[in-house]
Write a structure and sequence with these properties.
The complex is a heterodimer of chains A (290) and B (272).
Chain A (H helix, E strand, L loop, with lengths): L2 H20 L2 H21 L2 E2 L2 E2 L2 H8 L1 H34 L2 H16 L2 H12 L4 H8 L13 H25 L3 H9 L4 H29 L3 H7 L6 H11 L3 H25 L2 H6 L2
Chain B lengths: L7 H7 L1 H24 L17 H7 L2 H34 L4 H14 L2 H15 L5 H25 L4 H8 L4 H12 L1 H16 L3 H6 L7 H11 L3 H32 L1
Helix pairs in contact in B: 2-13, 3-13, 4-5, 4-7, 4-10, 5-7, 7-10, 8-9, 10-13
The chains are: A mainly alpha (290), B mainly alpha (272).
Protein name (chain A): ABC transporter permease
Chain lengths: 290, 272
Amino acid sequence: MAPHAAEAMEGDARRERLRLLALSSPAFLLVFVVLLIPVGWLFFLSFIDKDGFTLSHYARLWQNDAYFEIFRVTFLSSFLVTVLTVVLGYPLAYLLSQLPRRAAIIGLTVVLLPFWTSLLVRTYAWLVLLQRKGLVNSTLMSLGLIDEPLNLVYNMSGVVIGMVHIMLPFMVLPLYATMRSIDPGLMRAAISLGAPRRKAFFTIFAPLSLPGVIAGSLLVFIYCLGFYITPQVLGGGRINLVSMKILENATIYSDWGAASALGVVLLVVTLLLFKAIQMIVPVDRLMGRS
Amino acid sequence: MMDMDSDPTVSHLRRLWLYLYCLAVAIFLLAPILVVIPMSFSPSEFLEFPPSSLSLRWYQSLFNSAEWTGAAIISLKAAVLTVLVATPLGIAAAYGLQYSEMGIAKLVRSLLIIPLIVPVIIVAIGVFYLFARLNLVNTLTGLVLAHSVLALPFVIVVVSAGLQRFDINQELVARSLGASRLKAFRTVTLPQIRPSVMSAALFAFITSFDEVVVALFVSRGPSSTLTRKMFTSLRDQVSPAIAAISTILILITFLLALAALASARGDKAQKS
């Protein structure tokens, strides 16, 4: 083939690649204008006050005890929710991964039904269930387990229960995907070689399922950090999280500097944790299975 | 050597605690749905479970309320428009980024996935700040633009997964036989990734329909969406009317999920 023809082909291939890339430009433009510009703007606002450049918004986050408390409660509730979703989700995912496919699909439907149900509907349901005269309290009382109704809602326990319910599918689905991919032959081999089941589980299955646990936990944790709706409704204003403070600063006080600085801190923590997840499991795999 | 695990009775008995534990978790997962539906048929002003008798009182009051039906119509409009914006944009982006072998494609892709990772509260105040300057607050356009950004990552991820299972050579053959690029895509590629496109559209619909935080900022007063209005009324009172709306929402989601499932099944049956 003549050299100029080869060059022309290469030029064609290049143009083809560019044309394909250009197909993503409308989507990119939308995300750029509606998300990246405003977030960049907030970043800028967090370093600015009426006199120009300042670090005062960040200094306030650092010095003010109220902010410290908000961060403490946010991290604490996110941590509790993450631990509880592992405790509840791991055995469920394990059982599902050991069942024959057909039975597992029925089990997964139980996980997916709430996953597909409106977040607000589930939050509302928990508000009803956990009330002083709600179903949970009346059941516990009729069983004689408690004499007085417990305060289950408009406090930390309500927030955590509701968030665990919302987050559980996000834990079970990646766990299930990881556990399904573990070769069952490994466990059988260990047992047939004389290992007690328990030992085989802890030395073989548990370590192999660890990437799923870590990915699921990080996913749940970062979702919890920025969670607004469920903790707002079930906390009844008594539990203050970072997301609520951002909203309050922006809308009630119109203090964009403070709102932005908080937002930037939340965003940076979230992105760092997300980067950590990506190193363990690609996002597409987490999402593709749900 | 006898494999102990192949004896089901032993293993079932040994796993009894596991079954019970998982049953409890399943009840926890399903409890909210199972409680809300019966409660919506209660005639009482207060929430009672189980309801003392059955009535459609709250459904009637909902359908007679211009406020609630208006909010439902706004939500439906926003969700349908979000599907119409996010699905084609997402398909084009997923397709282009999948086959363009340029290094920058990877970066563009991760930027397009970003709305999934950024906490919604940050998206919401950012969008609010921008829209206030563009006079887009409390408009359907603004709401649809914001919801489309939130829905795009889902569309891109789901459609990319579909494209990965598709052999692009089929489209190239169609084009080498004279079909235009668009025609080749429409008649060869699109039908084969249809299940992914359907579930992407479903994701986009639900993302918009279920969204509250952005709507809190950019759809107020008479342009409130259904979920936004529910959220505000939850702060004031816990009325059985909300249980009725919730039941309707649960029903809609299930019907959509069933439709998506049926269409995926149909495609499979067609292929085999």
